[in-house]
TrEMBL record:
Compositionally biased region (Low complexity): 364-376
Top-rank lineage group of the source organism: Eukaryota
Name of the protein in question: Peptidase M14 domain-containing protein
Family: Belongs to the peptidase M14 family.
GO MF terms held by the record: metallocarboxypeptidase activity; zinc ion binding
PANTHER family: OS03G0856100 PROTEIN, PENTACOTRIPEPTIDE-REPEAT REGION OF PRORP DOMAIN-CONTAINING PROTEIN
A Pfam family it matches: PPR_2
PPR repeats: 618-652, 653-687, 688-722, 723-757, 825-859, 860-894, 895-929, 930-964, 965-999, 1000-1034
Organism of provenance: Linum tenue
Catalytic residues of the enzyme: E301
Length: 1069
């Protein structure tokens, strides 16, 4: 009878379906969009790229892979931690903590790509436009961010194998329904295919790992990222209300800001249960808010295509074209960084946790229970749509057809319950959960059975049978305690022997350590030195225990990531020990060693290990080896390994391709770089903005400026937003070809797109305009980028223009900076002072020096010395004297260099008494005369005829421990020569040689001139021979003296015109 009613119901449903089958024929005929491999990474490639990113930025990123499992089901989860400053254990509790989860549903690929983009921006390999990175880095210094890039790795692999609509994990459980808050409640529209909550809260290894991570990390912000629509949700999901009080207001305020600035008011804002139209029970966000007490817990829905067919899941949940893909990632990356920046401002000072509105209800399984099975049927022949998709279909139908469609859905649900084994298209019902039980009794007919189900043995989060978890924790605690007591011994706590305590503990449990447990203990210690100690005592703890590949590999990894100064020697020792003990490593061991060593002889040793251990290189091994050679700046070997990798059929990821391209380009390996770029296209590895930037640089190096423009336009057409590096690279190509018009056009586009120019941008443009004589266009470019003109940019322009000799332009920009900014830039002021002094505009320099305090620039001794030097050079002695008096009376205090300038300046104009007085003031001050002070005074005295006083100062400086230099000797030799004391000059020259002070060509020229003037021709010839023997090259002055010697060699005496010594300090002309 039941079969008859079911058959009649089927006929009625089919007849109704015929009435509007044409409505759905379009839906059924739509082709299923496959995964776009050019846009999306596979899960393994994504995790490899993240691992590579962590390896390149160990100062910011760390990565941990957590394995967990139960009932034969295993799951792995990767956790990446971002922290800009290295912290000790527990120090991150003082920081603002953010926990992010992506890829909780396998079909939502775009969320995991967002995770990779955020990590790339955090590690500064990609950049957000219009962000002051220095200011933002100061914000990031206060944060610790933990990210799970692919929470549901097993479910993601099912999607990659072709099940594009799969959202559950590897054994059919929806991870966002497996949490304890309001778990298991089923709404009227409950779909077991979509929302299977599991057999109990936290029945799945993935949710167990996430719970443990959340409780230990204790975040201030939790964000669970999904796709399927555009929404910003706050608690609650299991009811249509939001939390009460200020906590709710702060969350809503933050979400409204994100919606306005980055979602452009497209996103739905509110509670998940009150906004979507259905309630969800057992979700992660409700657990985070109610149980973990996270103050701000959110669920973000980042993308959805409501026009997609219900069966076309990839298109419904993920962008399928380059432009949309990049727009979505750019907008949501900016949204997350907005939260990083403003999230802490929405918290009170104590970072208080949200008030509890519910408690977690965990029940321990009993030792046994009677079997009572109530499971939901699972249809394997269907490709279902979510409730959101059903609503999207209903909105496209009129009233009558909508009612018919709903009736059809109800009919289909009833057919799933009925056991129509023989009706075509309806398969046998099967249960989604299986049990193993012992039958205890049966009815006489055998139709009723009683069975006893024994619950599984409790497992710890790592998957070990208890008490293994207690073993790991206890051993870790004992080791840490003994290390602490040994480092801080006291009478109450004497030094402990960790081996004895551990041996006693293990013997009391009669437990033998396994290699996996040893690995976990070493990892939990969080100390490389402690891990090494434990590694050494393990064999003595358990006589049957022997270290194997896993324990050696774990210790090598711990040492390689440590800050131990001798870590490379320790790793080499571990490898030697493995050889000695006959332990054969794995490919993971070799990969870790390649990453640890990264250069020269050690890399060759890693390749030898592959042969000795009979290992086959994997794609990841090849990639590690390529990058290791590139980091050691050996692009030749890196390219050679890449060629071998191609022959084996492997390919690099986009980051490794870019690294190889950049290294080859920098080393001018043009042909090899072009070959690698062609390989990228053949391997369907879509170039990103960094690839295009490298190719632009490559084209510029080869002189193919049109090719560089082609690459730049292609980058724009594919939806990429060039960063400052890309713009500067393109500008560099245009400036090298002196294409002023295109350079200015590109600069204007750059500013229009919101990309802030930096100093290098202006450097390129400034040099271009100066080279072609069009510096007047610099004003036009400054006007274009007016909103980005800062004091530092003005200062750079002033400095550069001054150095290039364009004093008037430098002065004009300095005046603009002076007028438009309340605070001056010290570097720019120094450049302007230097420019004025070099041009002899000492009055303007003195005036500027006096006005600097008005702009908040503190004048210092160096600035005054610059102006004093110019005054001395231009012999403006009254101003020189006045400024010196100002320094003594008002500051800044003179230094030794100040006194040296004054001595030289007074000596230059013949004011010997003033020079001597200044020298005496120097001796009586806190400053100490140096060799330049004595050289200046000796030259002043000698030039003005007081050779005896000059010689006395020479002896005085030697008595005070100052060793005369070549300038001192040359000055005094010239003074003796001028006063015809040739013997003294020659004696001083010999003394100079005896003291180990080697004369230069100037010294030889002075003495040659002295000997020639006194008629000592033979001595002059001998001196010239010594000059040649000492490897010095004669200059024009030397040859002039030799010419006089030759012309006057037959005369005993020659009359010549006397001339003073010119130049300062010493000159031979």
């Amino acid at each position: 009878m039941a079969s008859l009613w079911s058959f009649l119901f089927l006929l009625s449903s089919l007849s109704m379906f015929a009435c509007f089958s044409s409505v759905f024929s379009e839906e059924n005929d739509i082709a299923i969009t496959p995964i776009n491999r050019d846009l999306y990474h596979s899960s393994s490639d994504l995790l490899e790229q993240i691992n590579s990113l962590v390896h390149r930025h160990p100062d910011k990123l760390t990565m941990e892979t957590i394995a967990n499992g139960n009932k034969g089901y295993q799951a792995e989860m990767t956790v990446v931690t971002y922290s800009r400053s290295s912290t000790k254990d527990g120090d991150d509790k003082s920081k603002f903590r953010i926990l992010l989860s992506f890829g909780q549903h396998g079909r939502e690929l775009v969320t995991t790509e967002l995770a990779l983009r955020i990590l790339s921006i955090l590690s500064e390999e990609q950049f957000l436009p219009n962000v002051d990175r220095d200011a933002f880095n100061s914000t990031l210094d206060k944060l610790v961010i933990k990210m799970v890039p692919v929470e549901n790795l097993n479910g993601r692999k099912l999607v990659e194998q072709g099940d594009l609509c799969e959202r559950r994990n590897g054994r059919g459980v929806d991870l966002n329904r497996n949490w304890s808050v309001d778990w298991g409640k089923k709404e009227k529209d409950y779909d077991p295919y979509e929302e299977n909550p599991g057999t109990a809260p936290f029945s799945e290894p993935e949710t167990q790992t996430m719970r443990r991570l959340a409780l230990s990390f204790d975040p201030h912000v939790w964000i669970n990222v999904h796709s399927g629509m555009e929404a910003l949700f706050m608690p609650y999901d299991h009811k249509n209300t939001t939390p009460e009080g200020s906590a709710s207001q702060k969350m809503r305020s933050l979400l409204n800001r994100v919606n306005k600035d980055h979602c452009y008011d497209r996103c739905m804002v509110g509670s998940g249960g009150g906004s979507v139209g259905y309630l969800a029970h057992g979700t992660a966000t409700d657990y985070m808010y109610d149980v973990v007490k996270v103050p701000m817990a959110f669920t973000f829905e980042m993308y959805g295509d409501s026009t997609a067919s219900a069966k076309d899941c990839f298109k419904m949940f993920n962008p399928i074209d380059h432009a949309t893909f990049n727009r979505v990632l750019n907008d949501w990356s900016a949204a997350f960084f907005e939260i990083f920046k403003t999230g802490p401002n929405h918290m009170d000072e104590a970072h208080s946790k949200a008030a509890a509105s519910g408690q977690e209800n965990l029940q321990s399984p009993s030792s046994s229970s009677l079997l009572s099975v109530s499971t939901s049927p699972r249809r394997e022949d269907e490709n279902p749509a979510s409730r959101t998709q059903h609503r999207a279909i209903l909105t496209r139908l009129d009233g009558g057809r909508r009612a018919a469609f709903q009736l059809l859905v109800v009919g289909a649900s009833l057919l799933a319950v009925l056991d129509f084994r023989k009706v075509q298209g309806i398969t046998c019902r099967r249960y989604s959960t299986s049990y193993t039980a012992k039958v205890t009794s049966a009815s006489p007919t055998g139709r009723v059975l009683s069975a006893e189900v024994s619950p599984a043995h409790p497992l710890d989060p790592r998957g070990y049978l208890l008490p293994r978890r207690h073993l790991i924790c206890k051993v870790t605690q004992l080791l840490r305690q003994s290390d602490h007591d040994n480092c801080h011994p006291s009478s109450a706590r004497p030094k402990l022997n960790p081996a004895l305590h551990l041996e006693d503990y293990l013997s009391s449990l009669t437990i033998v350590l396994t290699s996996n447990e040893v690995c976990e203990i070493m990892k939990s210690l969080n100390s490389a030195s402690l891990a090494i100690k434990f590694f050494r005592i393990c064999p003595s703890l358990c006589p049957k225990f022997r270290h194997n590949c896993f324990t050696y590999t774990r210790l090598i990894l711990i040492i390689s990531r440590s800050n131990l100064p001798n870590k490379l020697e320790l790793v080499r020792g571990m490898v030697s020990e493995m050889r000695k003990n006959g332990v054969r490593g794995s490919i993971s061991t070799v990969n870790i060693l390649i990453g640890c060593f990264g250069e020269g002889r050690d890399l060759e040793g890693c390749i030898e290990l592959l042969k000795n251990w009979d290992l086959e290189m994997t794609a990841y091994t090849y990639k590690c080896l390529v990058q290791a050679y590139l980091r050691s700046r050996d692009s030749v070997k890196g390219f050679r390994v890449y060629e071998k990798m191609k022959l084996e059929g492997y390919k690099l990821d986009i980051f490794a391709y870019n690294m190889l391209l950049n290294a080859l380009t920098n080393d001018d390996k043009i042909n090899e770089a072009c070959l690698v770029f062609e390989d990228m296209k053949r391997n369907h590895c879509a170039p990103d903005e960094y690839t295009y930037t490298i190719m632009i640089k490559l084209s510029g190096k080869t002189g193919k400026h049109d090719g560089a423009l082609t690459f730049f336009e292609e980058m724009l057409n594919k939806g990429y937003s060039p960063n400052i590096v890309a713009y500067n690279t393109m500008l560099q190509v245009l400036t090298s070809s002196r294409n002023v018009n295109k350079a200015i056009l590109l600069f204007s586009k750059m500013v229009e797109k919101g990309c802030r120019p930096n100093e290098y941008t202006y450097h390129l443009l400034l040099n271009l305009l100066a080279a072609v004589g069009k510096l007047h266009k610099l004003d036009e470019m400054v006007e274009l980028s007016k909103k980005y003109m800062t004091r530092s940019i003005y200062a750079y322009l002033v400095r550069t223009l001054s150095k290039l000799g364009h004093a008037s332009e430098a002065h004009r920009f300095f005046c603009n900076m002076w007028s438009f900014h309340d605070k001056g830039d010290k570097d720019a002021c120094i450049s302007m002072l230097e420019s004025l002094c070099s041009a002899g505009k000492t009055t303007e320099a003195i005036d500027l020096l006096g006005k600097l305090p008005e702009k908040g620039v503190d004048t210092d001794t160096m600035m005054y010395n610059m102006v004093l030097s110019a005054l001395g050079k231009w012999k403006e002695i009254p101003h020189l004297h006045d400024m010196y008096e100002t320094m003594k009376n008002k500051g800044p205090s003179p230094d030794t260099f100040t006194y040296n300038i004054l001595i030289s300046s007074f000596g230059r104009v013949g004011k010997v008494d003033d020079a001597v007085r200044i020298f005496e003031e120097l001796e009586n001050s806190e400053c100490v005369p140096d060799i330049i002070s004595y050289n200046s005074l000796i030259n002043c005295l000698g030039k003005n005829g007081d050779v005896d006083a000059a010689h006395m100062k020479f002896r005085e400086m030697r008595e005070k421990g100052l060793n005369p230099d070549v300038v001192t000797y040359s000055t005094l030799i010239e003074c003796f020569g001028k006063t015809e004391k040739v013997e003294m000059a020659c004696k001083l020259f010999d003394e100079m040689l005896d003291e180990g002070c080697y004369p230069n060509i100037v010294t030889y020229n002075i003495l040659l001139d002295c000997l020639e003037r006194s008629g000592k021709t033979a001595e002059a010839v001998d001196l010239y021979a010594k000059l040649k023997q000492n490897g010095l090259s004669p200059d024009s002055i030397t040859y002039a003296v030799l010419e006089r010697l030759q012309s006057g060699s037959r005369k005993k005496f020659r009359m010549r015109k006397q001339h003073p010594i010119t130049g300062w300090v010493v000159s031979t002309l």
